[in-house]
Predict the 3D structure of the following.
Amino acid sequence: MNDFLDLFISYLSVERGLSGNTQEAYSRDLSRYLDFLEKQGCRAPGEVKSSDVALFLGWLKNEGIAPRSRARCLSSIRMFHKFLMVESYTDSNPASIIEAPRTLHKLPEFLTSPEVDQLFAACIGPNGENVRDLAMLELLYATGLRVSELVNLKLREVNLDSGYLMTLGKGNKERLVPIGESACRKVSEYLAEVRHRQDNSGRNIHLFLSRLGDAMSRQAFWNIIKKRSLIAGIYKNISPHTLRHSFATHLLENGADLRSVQIMLGHADLSSTQIYTHVTRERLKRLHQQIHPRG
């Protein structure tokens, strides 16, 4: 069965254009699933029954796997068996009738506007790392980019004169995103004062670089945002995605329409963006309870 997994991952890369991180997620879910099937004695796609898929989900539950992770795993399994059907390796999808585990819709964590200011203030200072970190944080908050989109930005994809950048999102889809004056200024300062010292040869095509002149990694930026949030005295569980959530929440709170926010975030489906309307409603509810005399 693992031979079919290799074919499926190749399909995700070549036909669907999914990122390496997404391919790895599918591979992890399905490797565990296929190991379970092997122990059940299933050696070929046509031997897998719906009861086998249900048994696997039950096993995940007993292992303490959260409903959200089990639902994601079932989604991977459905797509895998659909691929096997399309490629004529089997004539049925045993996962199609299995109901997904119910998940609680957890509202995304975001920073308030004063907390964003605190985070930026934690980068104030003349040294190169401060200038670079502030430019990265300002740009992330101004555009709502995913962390992978931020660290993979190329110099040629950013036009500070027009105030726009071009990014390649999920499914290799390009989108044009406005930057904003404050972020433009900070990125300009980084380019003028710091970046040329990090890339003496002038050959690195990436916008943001490490001290050694290499392209910034996701993990390195994760460490930057953790470090800056501690300096700022913000004790929320902050990740790079927190600034993306803050970007969307603050836009909606200030009157942006949902469709525009969807385009800027690069969401394929409007339902993915609608979670932020729940965030703003919950915040209004809390404010009402705190402020209203009979709240």
Observations:
- Strands lie at 158-159, 164-168, 174-178.
- The chain has a mean pLDDT of 86.
